[in-house]
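RETRY 2/3 - previous attempt timed out on the joint model. Re-submitting the same 834-residue input unchanged.
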Amino acid sequence: MVEPSPAGQHTLRRHNSALVLRAVAGEPGVSRAAIAAGTGLAKATVSSLVDRLIAADLVAETGPVARTGRGRPSTGLTLSTTGPHGLGVEIGVDYLATCLVDLTGRLHAHRMRPGDNRARSAPQVLSRVIRVLRAALREAETLGVPVGGIGVAVPGLVEASTGRLRLAPNLGWRDVDLGSHLSTALADRLPPTGVVVGNEADFAAEAELWQSGPAGPGGQRDFVHVSGEIGIGAGFVVGGVPFPGVRGFSGEIGHIPVDPNGPVCGCGARGCLDRLAGLEWIMRDAGVWDGRPGVARPPAEVLDVLVERLTEGDTRSRWAVRAAGRWLGIALAAAINVLDIPTVVLGGSYAALEPWLRDPLCAELDTRVLSSACGPVTVVRSALGREAAVRGAAASVVRAIIADPDAFVVAGADPAG
Amino acid sequence: MVEPSPAGQHTLRRHNSALVLRAVAGEPGVSRAAIAAGTGLAKATVSSLVDRLIAADLVAETGPVARTGRGRPSTGLTLSTTGPHGLGVEIGVDYLATCLVDLTGRLHAHRMRPGDNRARSAPQVLSRVIRVLRAALREAETLGVPVGGIGVAVPGLVEASTGRLRLAPNLGWRDVDLGSHLSTALADRLPPTGVVVGNEADFAAEAELWQSGPAGPGGQRDFVHVSGEIGIGAGFVVGGVPFPGVRGFSGEIGHIPVDPNGPVCGCGARGCLDRLAGLEWIMRDAGVWDGRPGVARPPAEVLDVLVERLTEGDTRSRWAVRAAGRWLGIALAAAINVLDIPTVVLGGSYAALEPWLRDPLCAELDTRVLSSACGPVTVVRSALGREAAVRGAAASVVRAIIADPDAFVVAGADPAG
DNA sequence: ATTAATAGTTCAGCCGTTGAACTTAGACGT
DNA sequence: ACGTCTAAGTTCAACGGCTGAACTATTAAT
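RETRY 2/3 succeeded.
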């Protein structure tokens, strides 16, 4: 929704600060003059804004030299690497991951702590999350970098307005008020932006957007990022901005009915995509894993075994992945007909399976997406691995700062000076 | 996308003008003082902005009296009924409709001209559209009301960036540059806002939003409006704003695959919703119409026959509509899992069938929408009939003016003064 | 008639942006 | 080595829009 608030002079500053910072982020090393030319702002304005951004340690000068040709050489500007960092946590089904990224998106610290979270109660896991976060905050302190905010990725429906986790089937959680719980527990060290909770698939999409630079994956700033794991989720990016849906529950493509009379899914419905193309079932169908679904997860190595067999040409594995590709194509055709986002990024474990998923997937998309008559649906493979969600959680903090730096500028200007 | 343009003082005016105008639109009869209190702007600012809006004839004073109690009585403000009007045209499969609405959304003139457009070539239909538009413009002139812009509703994929109609299966058209064609043909009488082409389902959703007041249907400003006719389309409204998708092709729920191995649809794919729950097929299955699909359309009265039989309790009709309701539920479950818009408005011919569609539809939604565990999906019936699309086309013109009046204010201030 | 209360206007002041003039700093040519 | 040229960045008066306080206008209540 458009903000229904009055606009004053400070609104201009805010808007233009964001504009300038975005220019710096989009083209590291730009000069003030180039920003002025690119944005349409006057040189004087850009200088004034840049000074403030430098004072807040969001932007840094790369040094006074940057030879171009004739005339006074320009002073390059970049996002400050000593500015506020984003701290990301992912509460996975069988691990806890953290990472720290700077304003440019570069990874500074990454930790992975295995351990089945389904075996523990929500409070147990939460106190572990708090310990892990405190450790990460300490680590940032020893590294000498300030933490701007914390992003928390969870595999479930997160209410955007409140930060409550409403439903996490794979964790077996319901109605956990993650946002305020973590905020109060960390009240003594709460970073400026606070704690933002979100869905892992949405964060993964954000990481993809970040990783692939300002142009986005495949040169697109609009894409569907599919996180294919045990459960299948999607994150949407429209015009370079995440689309969270009304309440934040968008992207649950794992529960699109692709075969209305098909097998029963864990959610109780019949023929959900999760049940027909989820990693667990692909592995069962391929015969690379014989665990019962939902009881214990296939270990990460099983994916490697599957890929190996696929490479060798194993018929059963190939058949299983082809079938999954077709079902995925049907679900994505539904999603694209609904949303009109003609680029698909295969992420998570699907990235590794892309060579074998691609053809059956594209075949379904070509016949079933109405707008494919007006231009093909592009399918690309994610550049990021399984750490996409954590990185996205951390990056979302940083993205929020870049999208609206002014609050941070005035807040940061006081203690800095 | 967020606009990457610099913000100056004029941007403030623009934003705040829209803010004030929206306040007037949302609560007809408000005083300047109430607007100031409601928006947070200073009284002086509101006065200044209102004066400009009155000068541009977007706002009118209702007369200097409006007794409240003690103190100086307030001067009520409303949207001007003599201000710019929106002219809407709908190119239906077997009719051409026009209408004229004022800033408040009230219908001033409405014409319906039957005639099968599939029998004619696109240029033939276009010249007829131009004649019809010229007639409507003359009529507006004799009524003494200015026309602010023209909205054109078409049953097909319209490229938002260019106004080109890329594909209209039910008309048999491909790649018709409606926008620029109409603009040049009407160049001598082109209204300020020009010509905007859009999908009929999107416009219908916009009409629904308008009709149901600032709160939206069912008190929601987020909903999926389903236009159920021969083809099934949907328009999405998120936060009170239409969601057009990346290229403007969103909402093609008629081609969601609901039964991957089902019957072949006109688009070539198998088991599309159109083929299983489109009006033509409901009528065939119900036995109220025996025309061959796609050859000639069932006349409008057939719907009345169907409704009559349903009311009488005819088993075959009820069975056919129940089946359609289930398929529709499956498709909408997919859409809602993707988009997270938990309110469905049944529009078009589906509005008349709502009593019989409702139960099977809701049953599917309850089991198949993952987030239904966090709150039920609401299903309501549209207040508007089949004229929703034309009205939406006209209303979209007016909505654009209200959303960004400033361009109109400065443009209108010159010739007015 | 006086007082109280509310609506709307006027005006000096503040703030951010702007464009022009100015300063800075290196490259090129002789 | 020196002056000239070019482009980057800064300074400053001016402009436009918002604001709060003071002021006027208009009605009800005492």
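Residues 8-10, 12-13, 16, 41-45, 48, 64, 67, 69-73 of chain A lie near DNA strand C (CB under 10 Å from a C1'). Closing ticket.
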